[in-house]
Amino acid sequence: MGAMTQNGVGSRIRALREAMDLSLRDLAERSGVSAPMLSQVERGETSPTLQVATRIAAGLELRLSQLLRLDEDGAVTIVRRGERRNGPTGVPGHSYEILTPPLPGQRAELSRHTLAPGSVTGGPGDPPMHEPGARETALVQSGTVILYCDGQRYELLDGDCVTFDADLKHQFENPGPEEAVLLAVLSAGLRRS
Q1: Cα–Cα distance between 32 and 164 in angstroms, integer?
Q2: How far apart are CA 176 and CA 143, in angstroms?
């Protein structure tokens, strides 16, 4: 397997590098591929060898297959019900699944949260607050949920949808006698440019 023919890989590498706020020199240091070589690859003047592409992928914190598969799969990625990733939670009564694929450079994540009666998100075992500029939109699919955000309390009923700044301190609580389910879309924060 010699040089790669993917035409889009150079522009893909540039977009991923910029999304990670890395200069060419930064990526060169992280990948062990020289900045002039990276520049040629990004402009499509040369196709990276397998070894170079593997190093670039590692510098972008991706597996080579992830870097290349993005072009092969085209514009549609389906996550089947059985393929959902479970989000990390150390909080009893709170579980969630991530419904969007783990593609690099993706700017939004959709997750489905299940809250047992009396349970709360945002406890000690839950992931930390989101990055500056992040926004979250949550749709209550069933049950009643209380959102505490920045010291305020909001009651959300079945079918209610809320959007808020996710970099503020926030948590959801299920006050009711039944399980509550909510869908949450997290939009990434500001690009640091």
Answers
A1: 41
A2: 7
Place of tokens 């996550």: 79
The pLDDT averaged over each successive group of 10 residues in the chain (193 residues) is 54 86 94 95 88 92 76 68 81 88 77 94 65 89 95 96 91 94 87 46
User: In the CATH scheme, what is the code of domain 81-187?
Assistant: 2.60.120.10
Query: How far is it, in rounded angstroms, from Cα 22 to Cα 31?
Result: 12
Tell me how far apart the alpha carbons of residues 35 and 19 are, in angstroms, rounded to a whole number. Answer: 18
Give the fold, CATH level 3, of 9-72.
434 Repressor (Amino-terminal Domain) (1.10.260)
Query: What does the DSSP 8-state code read for residue 106?
Result: -
Taking Cα atoms as reference points, which of 10, 12, 70, 58 lies closest to residue 32?
58
Of 103, 134, 99, whose CA–CA distance to 113 is shortest? 99
